[in-house]
Amino acid sequence: KAGVTQTPRYLIKTRGQQVTLSCSPISGHRSVSWYQQTPGQGLQFLFEYFSETQRNKGNFPGRFSGRQFSNSRSEMNVSTLELGDSALYLCASSLGDSNTEAFFGQGTRLTVV
Amino acid sequence: QKEVEQDPGPLSVPEGAIVSLNCTYSNSAFQYFMWYRQYSRKGPELLMYTYSSGNKEDGRFTAQVDKSSKYISLFIRDSQPSDSATYLCAMSRGYGNKLVFGAGTILRVKS
């Protein structure tokens, strides 16, 4: 059974640019969540999508947005990149019911210069 | 105060030792408790998943949850150098997939 796939694995962007990250969940999983991991703040929840609808949202500015497609694949977009957005962005998938057993992808390492 | 507190370590033990990793939390609404292992430059790998209080064992790993004390633990028996990683505790209220993580404990198992 294939795991969670995130693309690309590495990205280097310039301040002010925008970036789109992609996540393909485990087959059959309908919930996709996004997290930001930094050495200073650890793992922080960005948002969760379930059946193409945002179900939960963390405390991040509106520059961070996402969407989910009918096949459960999800994309995350960050606009007007700042140096502080440099982080490992992780996607997790789960079945989406009350069970919150979540499986993570390998992440996308974003560096903003 | 953070919702989930976890000692960042590092924790250094000899091969074969029993390792105890712990987290405390403040939100009594948490019902689902998880432990993840993360190797450098990799995504977190789910090790243990438990619901409410009690113990769960899987091979060399045992997870314990004490909701009355708001305290969870992960024990690793017969630790191996390959167990060297960062261990993250995580918990959720149960609906949706918002996990709240501890800071992670760096574990080093010396051969």
Architecture overview:
The complex is a heterodimer of chains A (113) and B (111). Chain A has 113 residues and is mostly beta strands. Chain A has no helices and 11 strands. Chain A has strands spanning 5-7, 10-13, 19-24, 31-38, 42-50, 53-57, 64-68, 74-78, 87-94, 103-104, 108-112. In chain A, the strands form 2 sheets. In chain A, strands 2, 4, 5, 6, 9, 10 and 11 form a 7-stranded mixed beta sheet that branches. Chain A has a 4-stranded antiparallel beta sheet with strand order 1-3-8-7, with no helix packed on it. Chain B has no helices and 11 strands. In chain B, the strands form 2 sheets. In chain B, strands 2, 4, 5, 9, 10 and 11 form a 6-stranded mixed beta sheet that branches. The N and C termini of chain B lie far apart (37 Å). The model of chain B has no long low-confidence stretch (mean pLDDT 94).
Give the helix/strand class of chain B: mainly beta
Q: Termini of chain A, distance in Å?
A: 37 Å
Supply Rg of chain A: 13 Å
Would you report the number of β strands of chain B? Answer: 11
User: How far apart lie the N and C ends of chain B?
Assistant: 37 Å
Find the structural class of chain A using helix and strand composition: mainly beta
- Give the uncertain stretches of chain A in residue-range form: none
Give a short account of the largest sheet of chain A.
Answer: 7 strands, mixed
Write down the oligomeric state.
heterodimer
Structure annotation, total helices of chain B: 0
* Helix content, binned percent of chain A: under 10%
Note the main attributes of this structure.
heterodimer, A: 113 residues, mainly beta, seven-stranded mixed beta sheet, four-stranded antiparallel beta sheet, 11 strands, 53% strand, B: 111 residues, six-stranded mixed beta sheet, five-stranded antiparallel beta sheet, 0% helix
